[in-house]
Write a structure and sequence with these properties.
homodimer, 367 residues, alpha/beta, Aspartate Aminotransferase, domain 1, Aspartate Aminotransferase, domain 2, 2 domains, 7-stranded mixed sheet, 3-stranded antiparallel sheet, 12 strands, PyrdxlP-dep_Trfase (chains A, B), transferase (chains A, B), Aminotrans_II_pyridoxalP_BS (chains A, B)
C-alpha cells in the first residue's frame, strides 16, 4: 500500500535500542538486581545539595527550562576557566555526539574509532550516513598510533577517542593525547570523550587548548557527579565549533531540573572529591575480589574495573549471565579479544560485598 | 586556516535560538516578570501527586532512565486505548518533530505548513534541508483547504497542522480534520500537533485511526499537565511509523524524572480536569479584560487567548513591549496579518489581575 516513505538512509538503518537497560533485563527475568554494577553509574548518588536543589525547584517544573542554559553554561565556563563561547550544554554526551555527527558528516564521510569503543557514537555516525573505519585495541588500550594512521590515511572527518577508555578503563597521559591530537590532519575533528575524566589520575586530561580548531572535548554529570538519570553533558571547543550547535540543537532539550541539578553539583566540589575517593576505594575492592578469584583486573582510571576472565568470550559471557542470575548486573565488551572480559562498575560497599559473595559460585557455574 | 568543515547544509543554517526565553528577557532588562503569561505554560503547575512522585524519585537520579520508557509508554497506550506499538515517547513534541524531519526529509523535499505556525517545526525542517511551502491563515485559522491544495500540488512529504492552533487559539472540528486528512496524498504524512488538545471542546480531536499510515499525532505533558520544564511528549501513529523512531532517537533522551513525573501526571486525571476548568475560567477572564479595554479576543480552544489589538503589527508590538516594561510577559505572532495580535497565556488569577491592572496603561503608552 502506498504510504509515506523514509529517506533512503533511514530505510537502511536498523530499529534498535543500542543498550538494553537493567530495567529491561529485570522485566524479562522477573527479578530485581541486588547489585547494579553494569551501567557505570555512581550509586553513591549526587551531593545532598543537589537533592536539595532539585527539591527546591520541583514546584517550578511547569516552566520551560532556559533554552540558553545560561546559568549552567556560565558556571561551567568559570569552572574550567574558558570563555562562555567555548562551552555548550547538551542532553548528555550522547546528545552532543549526535549533533556533531549531524553537523559534520556528509554521506560516506569517514569516521575513525576503535573496534569495541562507544556503541552510541557508532549509532549516531551510522544514523547520519558516516562510514566507520575501526582500528583494533592494542594491549587493552585504544591505539593512538593506529587511530592517527587511519585518520591520516582516510582523511577522516571525525576521530573518536575516549580517555580514560570505556569499556577497558585504560588511559593515556595528557602528553600522549596532546601528541596524538597534534598528529591529526587539521581538517579532522578529534572528539575527545572525557566522561571518566574526573576519576583519572592527575596528568590524564590535557590542558584545554580552546584555540585549537580540531579538538572537541566532552564531559558529563552522569558519572562521578552521579546524575546519569538527568541527562546533562557539555562540550568544550573553539568558539566557531561551539556556536555551530545553535544551528541544530533542540533548544529546550536540557530539562529544567537537569540544569538546576548540574549547577548544584558543580558547586559542591568537596562532595565530588569525596566521591572520587570512594570510587578509587571501590576500584581496589573490585580488583582484589577479581584477584582472589584467580582473575586479572585491568588497571582502571574510571568508575569501573574491567576484569580479564582468562578464557574466551563465551566463557566471559557465561560468567556475566551466571552473575545476572544471582542478582548482580554487570556488562562486558563484545568484540574479540576484549570480549574475554567483564566490566564491573564501582558500587556502594554493600553492592561490592554481594559481588564478592556471588562471584566464586558464578565462576564455578560458568564452568 | 584549515579546520574541520561543517556539511554544506549545516554551513547554510543560521546560528539561532528560535525562542528567546523569558529568562533571557529578564537578564536583559534586569527585572523579573511579575506575570509570566507568554510561554503557554500552566502556572497552575502539575498535580500534587506529581510533585510527590518526583520527590520520591530524586534519590535515584544517579541511575540512567529506562531507554525504552517502558512504564510510561505502556501507561500512555492504555490511556489512549491503542497498542503499545503505536506510541512513542520523546523529549517533548519538539524532539519528536526533529526526529520526523530527520526520518522523512530528503534535501529539497517539500513540507507544507501555515505562514506563522510553529517556528520550531520550521527550524527542524530547515535543519534537515526540507523546503518549506507556506499557505496563509484565513480568518485567523489555519486553512485546511489551502494546506490540502498545497500538499497535493507539491506532492509534499510532510504537512503540519496544529489543532487547536498556536499562535491563534482557533480550531477545527474532528470531522473537518478527518476530511482534511482523507484529502491528502497517501504519501504525504500529516503531522497533527495536538499539544493543546486537552483544553479543546469535545469533538475537536478525531478518533485515533492508527491503521492510517499517513497521520501522526503529537501530544505533550508541557501544557495542560503543567510539566513544560521536564520535556516529555509522545507520538501516536501506525506501528511502522512508530518503530522507525528507534532507528534514530537518542535513547536515553527522556530523563528519569520526566518519565516518573509524566507517569504520575497521567494517573491523576481528576487534577487534569480541574486544571482544564481553571484554564477555561482564565480564558474567559482574559477575554473580558480584552473587551473591557476595547480589544477583540479571538475565541480559543487552548491555554491562551490571542487578542486582536485592532491596528497594525507595530502597534501590537508596542503593546507587548509596554506590557513587558510593566512586568507582564506575553508573546505575539510576527507574520502579517496575525501580527496585529498579542498572545496571552492563562495564568493564575493573581497574574491575570496584574494583566488587568497594567493593560490600560500599556495601551495608553503604546499610543
Amino acid at each position: 500500500m502506498s504510504r509515506p516513505t523514509l529517506t533512503p538512509l533511514a530505510q537502511s538503518l536498523p530499529e534498535s535500542v543500542p543498550f538494553v537497560g537493567p530495567e529491561a533485563l529485570e522485566r524479562r527475568s522477573g527479578h530485581l538486581f541486588r547489585a547494579r554494577l553494569g551501567a557505570n553509574e555512581s550509586s553513591f548518588g549526587p551531593s545532598p545539595r543537589v537533592i536539595e536543589a532539585i527539591a527546591a525547584a520541583v514546584s517550578s517544573v511547569w516552566k520551560y527550562g532556559d533554552p540558553e542554559n545560561h546559568d549552567l553554561r556560565h558556571a561551567l565556563a568559570a569552572h574550567v576557566a574558558v570563555p562562555v563561547a567555548n562551552v555548550m550544554v547538551g542532553e548528555g554526551i550522547d546528545g552532543l555526539l549526535g549533533l556533531v555527527a549531524r553537523l559534520y558528516l556528509n554521506p560516506g564521510d569517514v569516521v575513525v574509532t576503535s573496534l569495541g569503543a562507544y556503541p552510541t557514537f557508532n549509532f549516531h555516525v551510522a544514523g547520519f550516513g558516516g562510514r566507520l573505519v575501526t582500528v583494533p585495541y592494542e594491549n587493552d588500550r585504544e591505539s593512538l598510533a593506529a587511530l592517527a594512521e587511519a585518520a591520516q590515511r582516510e582523511n577522516a572527518r571525525l576521530v573518536y577517542l575516549s580517555n580514560p577508555d570505556n569499556p577497558m578503563g585504560t588511559w593515556w597521559s595528557a602528553a600522549e593525547v596532546e601528541a596524538f591530537a597534534a598528529s591529526l590532519p587539521p581538517t579532522t575533528l578529534l572528539l575527545l570523550d572525557e566522561a571518566y575524566g574526573e576519576t583519572a589520575p592527575a596528568g590524564t586530561m590535557p590542558p584545554l587548548a580552546i584555540d585549537r580548531p580540531n579538538v572537541m572535548r566532552f564531559r558529563t554529570f552522569s558519572k562521578a557527579y552521579g546524575l546519569a538519570g538527568l541527562r546533562c553533558g557539555y562540550a568544550i571547543a573553539d568558539a566557531p565549533a561551539i556556536a555551530a550547535f545553535d544551528k541544530v540543537r533542540n533548544h529546550f532539550g536540557v530539562n529544567r531540573l537537569a540544569q538546576v541539578a548540574a549547577l548544584a553539583a558543580l558547586a559542591d566540589q568537596d562532595y565530588l572529591q569525596a566521591t572520587i575517593g570512594r570510587i578509587a576505594a571501590g576500584r581496589e575492592a573490585i580488583a582484589a575480589i577479581a584477584s582472589d578469584n584467580g582473575l586479572v583486573p585491568i588497571p582502571s582510571a574510571t568508575n569501573f574495573v574491567t576484569i580479564d576472565c582468562g578464557r574466551d568470550g563465551a566463557y566471559a559471557l557465561s560468567v556475566l549471565q551466571t552473575l545476572a542470575a544471582r542478582g548482580v548486573f554487570v556488562r562486558k565488551p563484545m568484540v574479540p579479544t576484549l570480549d574475554r572480559c567483564i566490566r564491573i562498575s564501582v558500587g556502594r560497599p554493600e553492592e561490592i560485598a554481594i559481588l564478592a559473595e556471588e562471584l566464586p559460585g558464578a565462576l564455578k557455574a560458568a564452568g
